[in-house]
Amino acid sequence: MSVPLLAFNDKGIYCQQADVYLDPWRPVTNAIITHGHSDHARWGHQNYITHHTNVSIIKHRLGDINVSGKDWNETFTINGVKFSFHPAGHIIGSAQIRVEYKGEVWVFTGDYKTEDDGISVPYEVVKCHSFITECTFGLPAFKWEPQADVMTEINNWWAENRAEGKTSILFGYSLGKAQRLLKNLDPSLGRIYTHGAIENMTEIVRPLIQLPPTIRITPETKKEDLLGNIVIAPPSAHGSTWIRRMTPFVTGSASGWMAFRGARRRRAVDKGFVLSDHCDWTGLLESIKATGAERVICTHGYSDIFSKYLRELGYDARTAHTQYDGETNDEDS
């Protein structure tokens, strides 16, 4: 095929045969969206197609848009090109996009992880000829501990802070990470309070997953109410006047970047927990091998290093840049 089935241009990942874009970063007519994070689901497209779980999430974030939802593994055809969504395991509703035309199969992962987090539909291996993979944590230094171990560490931290009469403030992105934390916190330790941005998104996804009760923090909330309890807040709240009125408190951050020495210090938090919504090094390599793909295109993250390593393993691997390159240290980590 002279023209690749999927190609990168200044608007996004383009399928010329279908005249449709995957996770475009500039306004286009037809967009197929992997998940609700703002670097993948952007405002301004005329038509959106996504997994049906994402419809309410994307509408909450983008407003009154023209969006249709599909089921897992449901094939829809555009000008002879077959598309389908398959679980990516990244966050609630996150999908890989399978694209097939005249027997050639490509898979675009969006963002993904292989560990079952209990709230996302677990990652599904999709066989293909060409695989477009993120490389957010594409270095051997990144190796995740099991979620159960990390959550035990977080709950123990909360219990210790409670014993000292302090409020625990834990930072996590409002979509995905926050609900993952909520799902695995131990409510027997105390009450769970939330920042407004966290509570707004949690209200949207509550019909989709079972979560413990939470209490929205309002101007009427007293700091005495928070003592010994835990607050889930977005990283953007750190250092704000909103948080300063909660003293005495202890801060923590749940992110894959906490695996790096110095990350906790740069983010000025008291405790770092290594909990990522992306694959680690081993997860990336095992996923790629399982697809059977010969061609691998590496996007945002440590893409140059990772693609070089894949070439050493015998893959036809290269790097493609996206507009969300450089956002790998953002809140969805």
Automatic annotation (TrEMBL):
Nucleotide-binding keyword on record: no
Enzyme Commission identifier(s): 3.1.-.-
Keyword check for Lipid metabolism: no
Example GO molecular function: ligase activity
Sorted UniProt keywords: Exonuclease, Hydrolase, Ligase, Nuclease
InterPro entries: MBL, RibonucZ/Hydroxyglut_hydro, Xnuc_lig_assoc
Enzyme class: hydrolase
Protein name: Ligase-associated DNA damage response exonuclease
